[in-house]
């Protein structure tokens, strides 16, 4: 969607012409007033951008506030910063009303900033995504108990990408998450915003290598994980997301062994009596961004003397509970089985 098209849409909605008004730093501006922009909804944009609006309506951006995991986390810790990214049309200090909750991150959220239209070249840069996908832990008083270090990143997705081979090759966020599509003769960047619930995208993110050999009455399983078509760590985003690697044998009573790909935190007390202080990251077992860090190599030992084959699976799990709940969403990354050598 070009900046001129956005301007035309908003101007039509506002009932004014697409005029030749003020320009700031060469960037187009809407001729609509602040009040008119505030009342603009994504439904208003559908008249000229029907395919794009339909894609967005089914996306995680549109469900950003109504997502069950977001609701669960916000109920446990109702911090205003959650509203700023998950329902950005909500006035500061208020709770999302019906429209802001229903639309989540809508057209105006990204395409209009301070009553100015954001031009397409600006939205093409990965920096445009950093506002909601790169931020630190909130500063809180840790004197009475443990809190996460406010100097550490809660979400480091943009930072991971900026250090990766993908950034060096100028492959940005939109190349994976907003690919070019053509619906009904309307070529555009997809606004379905493919992410962790897109099975095809997730399946392309990691390459899994599995080898199994017999050692006495046990089976040794070695798993190597490499970044695939991905520009950041796997998993990325919220610190509660996990990659869950499982292995088992074809014996009837075989147990399932599990390894979790995640950021791991531990308490670092501030006082001699162990009180106060911060939770700090002590390990990162995730698949690193391409070209960054050491690749995970996980070794399992399964007690299974009569086994002939080893099965395995890798899932992406979104959770806010510890231990994870059975109804936490999962997306299958890959699965298979190998013969025991």
Describe this structure in words.
The chain has 341 residues and is of the alpha+beta class. The chain folds into 2 domains: 32-118, no CATH class; 131-340, no CATH class. 26% of the residues lie in helices and 27% in strands. The protein has helices spanning 3-14, 34-39, 42-45, 50-57, 68-76, 80-86, 98-103, 107-111, 120-124, 127-133, 157-162, 165-168, 173-177, 199-203; strands spanning 112-113, 116-117, 134-136, 147-148, 153-156, 180-183, 186-189, 206-215, 218-227, 242-249, 257-261, 263-268, 278-284, 297-303, 309-317, 330-339. The strands form 6 sheets. Strands 11-10-15-16 form a 4-stranded antiparallel β-sheet. It has a 3-stranded mixed β-sheet with strand order 4-13-12, with no helix packed on it. A 3-stranded antiparallel β-sheet has the order 8-9-14, with no helix packed on it. A hairpin with a 7-residue loop joins strand 10 (242-249) and strand 11. The chain is globular, with a radius of gyration of 24 Å. The N and C termini lie far apart (55 Å).
Shape: globular
Tell me the number of helical segments per DSSP (H or I, 4 or more residues long). 14
- Quickly give the structural class: alpha+beta
Radius of gyration: 24 Å
Strand content: 25-35%
How can the largest sheet be summarized? 4 strands, antiparallel
Provide the number of structural domains.
Answer: 2
Strand order of the largest sheet: 11-10-15-16
Mean pLDDT rating:
86
Protein name: Cytochrome c-552/4 domain-containing protein
InterPro entries: Cyt_c-552/4, Multihaem_cyt_sf
Organism: Enhygromyxa salina
